[in-house]
Amino acid sequence: MKRESKIFFLTIFSLIMLCAAFQTQATESGDESGKVAVVNGTVISQEQFDREMIAVQEIIEASGKSFSAAELTTIKKTVLEKIIRYELLYQECLKYNVEIGDDEINKKYESTRSQFPSDAEFQQRLKELNNSEELYKSQIKRDLAIQRLINQKFKPAVTDEEIRKYYDDNPDKFKQKSQVRASHILISVDSSATKAQKDTARKEIEALLSRIKSGEDFAAIAKEKSQCPSSANGGDLGFFSKGDMVEPFEEAVFSMKPGEISNIVETQFGYHIIKLTDKKDEKTIGFEEAKEEISRSLKREKIAESYNKFYADLRDKAKVDIFLKY
User: Fold this and answer.
1) Cβ proximity of 212 and 260 under 8 Å
2) pLDDT, tens digit, for every residue of 75-100?
3) What residue ranges do the domains of the chain occupy?
């Protein structure tokens, strides 16, 4: 799917610039004492910087993109600046006596651990990041403290007049294009596949279409046979608009009626069977429906503006010495 590829690469590059985890090469180091920076007297160690670099390196490798020396230098500077930012914010937490209890830390820790299939895999991931349970809990404490500080310091008010003005000034933002919700079954075919491989895939999708026409459940077959990640949800792709999917897929799905199942559709990803489950006509979202989301959006903007000014002031007043050699 075109949309899935787009989201994947946007995610990679946003994480490269913002993520908290990477590994640097041995030639890129701080001074002889192992310091990469000192922030108001607090040392940022080479070990800490290396730990922050691990995940970034993983993302770079997963992207398959090559970076120039200048781009990699920018990434390293961004990672170091992130560490400095968090240190300055945590120093503010200590200044304002922001307290985080053990129960909060343990709850967050267990929540993260539960996302792994087993404790052994969670421990392995900590090891890969040069981390430990104790160190990770310390990081959680800092993260929660900083979030609490921000929540306490920045509580913007948004008036009804501001919400109304935003709605009236941005009419295009409240025009919702027609959307469809569909499920699909995919038998993938590599772009370099031989005719024999394509014929095999075609026969497989034809057999699945025959099963569906004979009355078998579409979602059950999708879970069993589809080679798309959406198989976990019975093939459900959610709602999407024109322009979100590749052209042959869109041509088929936007010509269908809810409940209808397509014949075999071929795209560059392989062979699909599509089921249209819902359809929404183009409409303008009314003020009352949009009001709550506008309010949240304006609050986020005000928080971001206040936070940026607050942090810029912190950074200007801070004594920061950088020793990292790029």
Assistant:
1) no
2) 999 999 999 999 999 999 999 999 99
3) 8-155, 177-283
Nearest to 324 by CA among 81, 118, 30: 30
Candidate from 63-67, 214-218, 306-310 with smallest mean pLDDT: 63-67
The number of beta carbons lying within 10 Å of the beta carbon of residue 48 is: 19
* pLDDT tens digits, 113-123: 999 989 999 99
Predicted confidence (pLDDT) per residue in 5-31, tens digit: 333 333 333 443 334 333 323 334 445
Alpha-carbon dihedral angle through residues 153, 80, 35, 150, given to the nearest 10 degrees:
10
Half-sphere exposure of 47 (CA within 13 A, CB side): 5
Q: Tell me what the mean pLDDT of segment 161-177 comes to.
A: 95
What pLDDT, on a 0 to 100 scale, did the predictor assign at position 7?
33
Distance of CA 5 to the CA centre of its chain: 13
Question: How far is the C-alpha of 84 from the C-alpha of 322, rounded, in Å?
Answer: 10
Domains 8-155 and 177-283 share a fold: no
CATH for the stretch 177-283? 3.10.50.40
| Reported confidence tier of residue 33, pLDDT bands at 50, 70, 90 | low
Length of the chain: 326
Instruction: Classify domain 8-155 at the CATH superfamily level.
Output: Porin chaperone SurA, peptide-binding domain (1.10.4030.10)
- 1, 17 contact by CB (below 8 A): no
Phi, psi of 52 (to 5 degrees): -70, -25
Distance CA 279, CA 259 (A): 10
H or E element, residue 228: none
Note the helical H segments in 170-286. Answer: 195-213, 218-225, 247-253
What is the DSSP-derived secondary structure letter of residue 43? Answer: E
Q: Two tokens at 306?
A: 């206040």
Q: How many CA atoms lie within 13 A of 129 on its CB side?
A: 18
Q: Looking at residue 6, what is its pLDDT? A: 34
**Which residue, among 276, 283, 282, has the nearest Cα to 257 in the 3D structure?**
276
The CA distance from 147 to 101, in Å, is 14
